[in-house]
Design brief:
Layout: E1 4-7, E2 10-13, E3 16-19, E4 23-28, E5 31-44, E6 53-60, E7 67-69, H1 70-75, E8 79-83, E9 89-94, E10 97-102
Antiparallel strand pairs: 1-2, 2-3, 4-5, 4-8, 5-6, 6-7, 9-10
Length: 103
Amino acid sequence: MYRIELVKNGVKINGKPYQIGDYIKATDKGKIKFVGKIKFGVYLDSEGYVDDQHIGFIVEDIDNPIRYTLIDLINTGWKLSIAKDKPKVKVKLIRGKVIYEEE
């Protein structure tokens, strides 16, 4: 169960603040899995259910067409680091897969 509290310009989930405009870098076992910017708005449901639009917090990679809902990103189990500025990473596309590396 999650404790969710809406706050000015963001949300707290289980006491951890997530602010609109902040960047999240997700890592797993020392490898960068995803980097994106927190946004709030309407987004399309990619699961194909009858309700095809939702409103809420999403995290979008501004350089690639990849996005997660904030709660889905939290549920990955990856370590999430939050920053005001975009983390410096190199982005590569290898065999159709986005690869992130530290600069």
